[in-house]
Each structure stands twice: as structure tokens, then as C-alpha cells.
Design brief:
It is a single chain. This protein is α/β, with parallel strands linked by helices. The chain folds into two domains: about 170 residues, 3-Layer(aba) Sandwich (Peroxisomal Thiolase, Chain A, domain 1), CATH 3.40.47.10; about 150 residues, Peroxisomal Thiolase, Chain A, domain 1, CATH 3.40.47. It contains eleven helices and 13 strands. A five-stranded mixed β-sheet has the order 1-7-6-4-5, with helices on both faces. The chain has a four-stranded mixed β-sheet with strand order 8-13-12-11, with helices on both faces. The protein has a two-stranded antiparallel ribbon with strand order 2-3. Strand 4, helix 4 and strand 5 form a beta-alpha-beta unit. The longest helix is centred in the C-terminal third of the chain and has 23 residues. The chain is globular. It binds acetyl coenzyme *A.
């Protein structure tokens, strides 16, 4: 057996943080942000808002779209780097809130590649006969680790959740392949130093603002372009397809210039590239399932179409999935 996506849902908190709002917080401008990133605004959860609450709304929408009950779910995998608590997993909180009492639940942390890593885990478990139906999420409250005094990062990130319901299908349908890659040697490019075992929670950690995300934007940019293009091409070549077979290319929504550069390398026409980062910014693991969900709702992707999904994030991690909708 293989697995296919039978339902999609997303949720973004209603509160908007616009470029004009950020102009009042750090030395930046709407025109700089728009020109360098393509982002106009992002959605922000209320302070203390649980990741699992965003995930819950997205999950209910995906289950309704699939016509599947929570108790029919065998497996919940949440891709996130901003969990509700260090333990238990956000997936366990989601299971409780959803009433998915027959599921096993786990988180996968692959930063912005978290949804595709989670999709791959769920697909592999279904293929191995460990369950028939899975709920897979990318869900983040990035605002909880963003330093709103650092203009090079605070302009980029937003909060949100996207969910997909997977069900068994015949081989050759649904998820045709997942390719996952990492290079831990490049961890320093994007990281959040603490609190953790290396940098425990101390007054010093707080005074040095080490609980916030740090990124070498320029260096990360170059890796994002080459690695996303490479792993996208791998998905196509290993399945015997060309870029012209792809109805919609859905890249991680980090920066419009990255998306355009990757699209150019792949030779995909702009009208077959899905972009929504103008409204949401970079929602890390949530970006691809939110985009996929919106693409379906907007009729940009129809049953039988081939979708190429590509992610990139901290780790470094990067990944692709080729899906027959
Ligand atoms: N407003 C105004 N000026 C700014 C801002 C800002 N918000 N931020 C930086 N600048 C300045 C810098 O200080 C620098 O000034 P200087 O030349 O006087 O030193 C200048 O703008 C250029 O800075 P760069 O960092 O070179 O700008 P760049 O064009 O690279 O854009 C950005 C920065 C948007 C962060 C870009 O590098 C980027 O998008 N990187 C990739 C992000 C990404 O893909 N992350 C992966 C996923 S994240 C995850 O996994 C959680």
C-alpha cells in the first residue's frame, strides 16, 4: 500500500503584524521588507497561545474535508520547532483536544522542513502497515522565539498551522516519493541557543537574549536556493517526470527572491508556482500545508494533478515530496 492526502485544512490567527507595525518597533521600512522578502504582513498568536490550539483548528478542518472522524486516526505527527512545552509532545496535546483516542502521537523537529519530514514518517508507517489513517501537521508559534528587537529576523516570521489527513491507497497514487536531507554541520546558520542542555535556563541566558532565534540570512539564502532546487530535481528524475508534468510547484514560503530563484533554476513558469507569503510571512513547518490547503481551496490544484512540494530550514534540513492529488 501507499498513502494519499484525502483532506486538508489550515488556520492562521486573526491578529496581523504588518510591515508598518514593524516600522514602529525596529529601524526598517515597508519598502525594504517588501523588496527584500515579498512579505507585507504576518499573523501572530496571542501571547501564551498554545501551538496545539492552532493545530486543533487546522486539524478539524482537514478531518471535515476528508470526512474522517478523530477516533479513526491511527497516527498523529506534528512537524514543529515551537512546541507547547518541552514535553510532552504537541501531538499528544492535539490528540487530547481532538479526542483522537486511538492514535499514537509524536512531534518531528526539522524546523521549516518539518511538514515534509512528518509526511514522510506518516507515509512510511502506513506503507509498513502500522496504521491506515494519519493526521500530519506543520504547526508553529514562531512569535514565541522571535526577537522583536532584531530587524534582520523579526520581519520574516509568522504563526499558523496546516493539516493533512492521509489514508491508504494503491501504489502509484498519492505520495509518489519523499526525499529528506540534512547537514548538521551547518547548524549555526539558523538556531535558537536555549534553553536546553547546552545552554540551560539561567539569568545570563535571558540577559543575552539566547532564547531567541538567530540567523545568518545571507548565507542561509544561498543554501536555500541550491538545496531546494537540487532536491526538487531529485524528486522529478527519480519518478521519471519533467517539470512540465507538474501542475503546481509549492515551495517553502521564506522569501520571494528565494522562490523566484528556485523556480528559475527548475524552469517552472511563474503561474505554476504557489506564493502566499505576502500575507503570512515564513510560518516555518506550517508554510507548505497552509499553501497546499489554500491551493486546493482556490482550485489551483485538482484531483489527478501532480504537485511538487519543496522545503528548507534550520538543521540545515531540506526535503521534497511529489504527490498525485
Ligand atoms: N530593514 C532594513 N535594513 C535591514 C533589515 C531590515 N529589516 N534587515 C537587515 N537590514 C540591513 C542589514 O543590516 C544590512 O545592512 P549593511 O549592509 O549596512 O550591513 C543590509 O540590510 C543587507 O542585509 P542582508 O542580510 O545582506 O540582506 P539580504 O538581502 O540577505 O536579506 C533576509 C535578508 C531577508 C533575511 C534574507 O537573507 C533571507 O531571506 N534569508 C533566508 C531566510 C531563510 O530562508 N530561512 C530559512 C528558513 S528559517 C527556519 O528554518 C526557522
Amino acid at each position: 500500500m501507499a498513502s494519499k492526502i484525502v483532506g486538508l485544512g489550515m488556520h492562521a490567527p486573526p491578529k496581523k503584524l504588518t510591515n508598518h507595525d514593524l516600522e514602529k518597533m525596529v529601524e526598517t521600512s515597508d519598502s525594504w521588507i517588501l523588496e527584500r522578502t515579498g512579505i507585507r504582513s504576518r499573523r501572530i498568536a496571542d501571547p501564551g497561545g498554545a501551538n496545539s490550539d492552532l493545530a486543533l483548528i487546522a486539524s478539524k478542518r482537514a478531518l471535515a474535508d476528508a470526512g474522517v472522524r478523530p477516533e479513526d486516526i491511527d497516527l498523529i505527527v506534528v512537524g514543529t520547532c515551537t512546541a507547547d512545552m518541552p514535553l510532552p509532545s504537541t501531538a499528544c496535546f492535539l490528540q487530547m483536544k481532538l479526542g483522537a483516542r486511538n492514535a499514537c502521537a509524536m512531534d518531528v523537529n526539522a524546523a521549516c522542513s518539518g511538514f515534509l519530514y512528518s509526511l514522510s514518517v506518516a507515509d512510511a508507517l502506513i506503507r509498513a502497515g502500522r496504521g491506515k489513517k494519519a493526521l500530519v501537521l506543520g504547526s508553529e508559534v514562531l512569535s514565541s522565539i522571535v526577537d522583536y528587537t532584531d530587524r534582520s529576523t523579526c520581519i520574516l516570521f509568522g504563526d499558523g498551522a496546516g493539516a493533512a489527513v492521509l489514508a491508504e491507497c494503491a501504489e502509484g497514487e498519492g505520495i509518489l516519493s519523499c526525499h529528506l536531507q540534512s547537514d548538521g554541520g551547518l547548524w549555526e546558520l539558523i538556531h535558537c541557543p536555549g534553553p536546553g542542555t547546552v545552554n540551560p535556563l539561567t539569568p545570563d541566558l535571558i540577559s543575552r537574549r539566547m532564547m531567541y532565534l538567530r540567523m545568518s540570512g545571507n548565507e542561509t539564502f544561498k543554501h536555500a536556493v541550491t538545496k531546494m532546487a537540487d532536491v526538487a530535481m531529485k524528486a522529478l528524475s527519480e519518478n521519471g517526470f519533467g517539470i512540465d508534468d507538474v501542475a503546481l510547484f509549492i515551495p517553502h514560503q521564506a522569501n520571494l527572491r528565494i522562490i523566484n530563484a528556485v523556480g528559475k533554476r527548475l524552469g517552472v513558469p511563474p503561474d505554476r508556482v504557489f506564493v502566499n507569503l505576502e500575507q503570512y510571512g515564513n510560518t516555518s513547518a506550517a508554510s507548505i500545508p497552509i499553501a497546499l490547503s489554500e491551493a486546493k481551496a482556490q482550485g489551483r490544484i485538482m484531483p489527478g494533478d501532480l504537485a511538487l512540494l519543496v522545503a528548507f530550514g534550520a538543521g540545515l534540513t531540506w526535503a521534497s515530496a511529489l504527490i498525485r492529488m
